[in-house]
Structures are given as structure tokens and as C-alpha cells.
Design brief:
about 350 residues, alpha/beta, 5-stranded mixed β-sheet, two-stranded antiparallel sheet, 16 helices, about 50% helix
Length: about 350
């Protein structure tokens, strides 16, 4: 006679955690994407703060080039199947003793969990990137783990006289919490980047506190003595790391609208690393559909400028200037979708049809 199997009851979650998870179904922080975005656009500040020797070797008069979404990555996807490098940036080194300037690939891997196979994976990526680019590759692990976690040291193999050793640079972000306030006082954008990340960790199950921290950071950036482009980048990072539940997002939007009324500022949301929230809020404040559409189009065009710069560099910035004054939201949306689909820039330009309404 078969024994009755005892039904196992699922372990009850902490109610606070359960509620927070329900609230965040529509808005889980995109850690990897936001960190990749932040590192690329704040690259000089990031390297200067954490890897000063590497920073000094780079010729910053030549803009870094994000090569993550080129055919390079697609080829590496085939090689590594489901795993492929997070962020691949090409920089130019300062020439030495009259020699021609050399190019260098910077590979960043964002790691939010412990992985005993991490260094071997970095070795595979390093070799694969060298094969594809025919350039030297510097590999850097960015660990978003607790301060107690031990970082990998090296990948070592020795078989009958054949020896292989691979090491790479690593940084554990948790070790730098103590310098956040100092960096912000020095107007170093990395200070706000780190502050947003630590706020994300500290408010994992507390949306109310997260909303307040998000507003506080925005106020702090608004009054900071840094240029407008850096503020725009930081607004995107904050919105990406400090996502809110739909209910609290609505409250946040109202408070943000009041703040924008008090101070001259533009807040860019994560909705693409793309749109200016100001555009939509301006339309709501006008109370007219026409004003709302124009405000949103203006905001989307400005937000697209950042996305185009991020994806395509200087040619993307030039193309973005052609979007100024376009109020056809369908065309702007189609360009955004093209960026998301990794279309080449010439293909994006074809989406800018002559029938677009230009002021």
C-alpha cells in the first residue's frame, strides 16, 4: 500500500519582502545595464578614481568607443554561446617616444554574485577579444557583492610542463562606501553613482525610503557644481538603479514636478537611457494635448541624443542634431526601437522620413 506523501508547504516569505517583490514586478533595477551605461559615459572619472595608472596611459583627446554592440559581440556570442562580455570599450593610448599611438580594448565584466569560474571566464573573454580585434585587452571585473566576499585571484593550470596563468584587475564596489560623501563634496560624479548604487542595496525592500533617497540625490545633483551633461548622465543612472513601484512612481513624479517648478532642471528617466521626464511633465502641466505631445517630443529628441551618443559616438551625436524640432512621435519611437535593435547608423537615418513635421 502506497504511503501518503506529505505535501510540502512552500516556505513563507517575509511579508515585507513579499510585498516589495509584488510592487516591483514592473520595475526591477537593471543593475548590469545601468552600470555599463555609467562606466562608459563616466569612464575618465571611473578610471581616475579606481585605476589611476591606467587612466594616465590613455589619450583622452580621442573619445572612447563602445564596441559592445558591434559584430564583434555577435561573433563572440557564437563562440561563447550564452555568455559574452558585458562592456567592451576601445581607447587610444598616449604615444611613447615618437611611436605611433596604439589602441587598447577595455573589457568590463559586471558581477553581482559569487562565481568560482569567474577568472576562467575572464580568460576566455580576453583571448576571444584579442582574436577578434587584434588588439591588446585589459580585463576588469566590477563586483557588486558584499564587502565580506573574497574576490578571485588568478586562473592557474599546469599539466606536464604546460603552465597557464591569467590574472585580471578587479574592484569590489562595497569597499568604497566610506568615500561617497567625500567624492560628492569634491563634485566627482562617481560619488553620486556610488550613492545611487548603495541606496539601491539599502532600500531593496523599502520603496518609501527609496523614493526619498532618489529625490534627495536628484536635489543634490541639481545644486552640484558639475556641467549639465554630467547631471543628465547621473539622472539616468539614479532612475535606473532606484526603480519604484507604480504607485510610488506616481507620487515621485508629482514631487519631481514641484521640484522642477522650483528649480531649473531636467530629469532624464531610465526609459531608454532615453527620455527626458521633463518633456512629459511639461505636457501634463500645460494641460493641453498639443502641449503634452510637443513637450514629450522635445523630451524624447533630447533623450535620444544621449542614446545615440552612447551607441554610435560622434556620428550619432551629429545625427541627433537632425532630430531637433521633430514633433512626430512615431518617427522618434521608431528611431529608439532601431537603437534597441542595434541597427547600423545608416539604417537609422533612413527612418527619418521627409514627411516628418519640422518646426
Amino acid at each position: 500500500m502506497a504511503k501518503n506523501k506529505k505535501k510540502t508547504q512552500p516556505r513563507k516569505q517575509n511579508s515585507k519582502q513579499e510585498q516589495a517583490k509584488e510592487k516591483k514586478k514592473a520595475g526591477i533595477p537593471q543593475l548590469d545595464e545601468t552600470w555599463k551605461y555609467g562606466i562608459f559615459l563616466l569612464l575618465p572619472y571611473f578610471l581616475s578614481r579606481f585605476f589611476p595608472k591606467l587612466y594616465e596611459t590613455i589619450d583622452w583627446s580621442v573619445p572612447p568607443l563602445d564596441r559592445s554592440n558591434e559584430i564583434l559581440q555577435k561573433q563572440l556570442k557564437k563562440r561563447f554561446k550564452k555568455k559574452y562580455p558585458d562592456l567592451v570599450i576601445q581607447v587610444q593610448l598616449k604615444p611613447k617616444d615618437g611611436e605611433a599611438a596604439q589602441l587598447l580594448i577595455l573589457h568590463f565584466e559586471i558581477q553581482a554574485t559569487s562565481d568560482s569560474n569567474f577568472t576562467f571566464r575572464m580568460y576566455e573573454y580576453n583571448v576571444g577579444l584579442m582574436e577578434q580585434t587584434q588588439l591588446l585587452v585589459c580585463s576588469i571585473g566590477v563586483f557588486l557583492v558584499g564587502s565580506e566576499t573574497q574576490l578571485p585571484i588568478a586562473f592557474l593550470r599546469e599539466v606536464f610542463g604546460t603552465e597557464l596563468k591569467f590574472t585580471n584587475e578587479n574592484i569590489k564596489i562595497a569597499d568604497h562606501r566610506a568615500v561617497v560623501e567625500i567624492l560628492m563634496k569634491e563634485n566627482d560624479p562617481i560619488g553620486w553613482f556610488l550613492a545611487a548604487y548603495f541606496a539601491c542595496r539599502d532600500t531593496k525592500y523599502d520603496d518609501e525610503n527609496r523614493k526619498q533617497k532618489k529625490l534627495d540625490l536628484i536635489k543634490s545633483i541639481t545644486s552640484a557644481k558639475i556641467n549639465e551633461e554630467l547631471k543628465e548622465i547621473l539622472f539616468v543612472i539614479i532612475d535606473g538603479l532606484l526603480n519604484l513601484s507604480p504607485e510610488l512612481q506616481a507620487d515621485f513624479d508629482l514631487e519631481l514636478e514641484k521640484l522642477q517648478g522650483e528649480k531649473s532642471m531636467e530629469f532624464i528617466t531610465q526609459s531608454g537611457l532615453k527620455w527626458f521626464k521633463e518633456g512629459e511633465l511639461k505636457g501634463k502641466a500645460d494641460g493641453e494635448e498639443k502641449g503634452k505631445a510637443e513637450g514629450k517630443a522635445e523630451g524624447e529628441a533630447k533623450g535620444l541624443a544621449l542614446a545615440l551618443k552612447l551607441k554610435y559616438g560622434e556620428p550619432g551625436t551629429k545625427f541627433a542634431k537632425k532630430l531637433i524640432g521633430i514633433d512626430n512621435l512615431e518617427i522618434l519611437d521608431s528611431i529608439y526601437q532601431g537603437i534597441e535593435a542595434d541597427l547600423p547608423l545608416p539604417e537609422l537615418k533612413k527612418l527619418l522620413k521627409p514627411k516628418a513635421s519640422v518646426k
